[in-house]
Design a protein that fits this description.
Blueprint (H helix, E strand, L loop, with lengths): L4 E5 L5 H12 L2 H12 L5 E6 L7 E3 L4 E5 H14 L5 H27 L8 H14 L4 H15 L8 H4 L6 H15 L1 H9 L5 H4 L2 H16 L14
Helix pairs in contact: 1-3, 2-4, 3-4, 3-6, 4-5, 4-6, 5-6, 5-8, 6-8, 8-9, 8-11
Length: about 240
């Protein structure tokens, strides 16, 4: 059945897994999965698996068209957020966790789109998935905030790569901080007010900011070209007003 999602959540074992399980449930992961899968009418059933442990983090497996979400990665997300924003309230932390989990799921869903529809990818698939995830999130209300929260998380998570090890140079993902800057650049490129704020607060180097509007335009046009034929109603992918 097109657009169908089947979810399976392992019974969490231990406190770290229980926390991650609750965070993923609170982030309405299943609702997001069904919304995206229905919007694109995936030709194969999409499986969403919540599992104990951390492993290599969330991942998409084309062999069974599944997205696996390790509970302890979700627990690590709130750890990074609370550490980088110690003055935040539990409500603020919870909202940030929901935003990051939404971006991460959208990233893995982008992999599903690439493999289900044989989308062309020039460059690394992981970078393409970050781009698609950003485009999809910016389509939603408050999507820019979600993407910015995800960028802040990747920046905070980058401490694990200080200094980078050889395996990280060889990884198919960009460095965490590179991912953060890319996302911020695309969000800024899509909104002049955000771009100005990034410049005034010196969050993104001036040299990079100058290219962000053009980078965003290219990303959006490329995403529309490959994704629009597969959207159920052929909606455009312009950012929400």
């Amino acid at each position: 059945m097109t657009g169908k999602v089947v979810s399976h959540w392992q019974r969490p074992v231990g406190q770290a897994n229980a926390v991650g399980y609750e965070l993923l449930k609170a982030s309405e992961t299943e609702y997001l999965a069904k919304s995206l899968a229905t919007a694109f009418e995936l030709p194969a059933v999409l499986k969403v698996k919540g599992v104990n442990g951390f492993g290599g983090g969330p991942f998409y497996n084309p062999e069974d068209n599944s997205i696996t979400l390790p509970y302890q990665f979700a627990t690590a997300v709130i750890g990074v957020i609370s550490e980088t924003n110690p003055q935040g309230s539990e409500t603020e932390w919870g909202e940030a966790v929901g935003a990051v989990n939404s971006f991460i799921f959208a990233h893995e869903f982008a992999h599903a789109l690439i493999h289900n529809f044989n989308l062309p990818v020039l460059g690394r698939e992981e970078d393409a998935a970050d781009g698609i995830a950003t485009v999809l999130l910016l389509k939603a209300e408050d999507g820019a905030t979600y993407a910015a929260e995800a960028a802040e998380f990747w920046d905070g998570f980058s401490g694990r790569q200080n200094p980078p090890q050889l395996v990280e140079y060889a990884d198919n993902h960009s460095f965490d901080r590179q991912r953060a800057y890319n996302i911020l650049c695309w969000v800024g490129g899509s909104d002049e007010a955000v771009l100005q704020a990034l410049a005034e607060n010196e969050i993104v180097p001036e040299e990079r900011l100058a290219s962000c509007p053009a980078e965003w335009q290219l990303l959006r046009e490329s995403a529309e070209q490959v994704l629009k034929p597969h959207l159920k109603h052929g909606a455009n992918l312009a950012p929400a007003a």
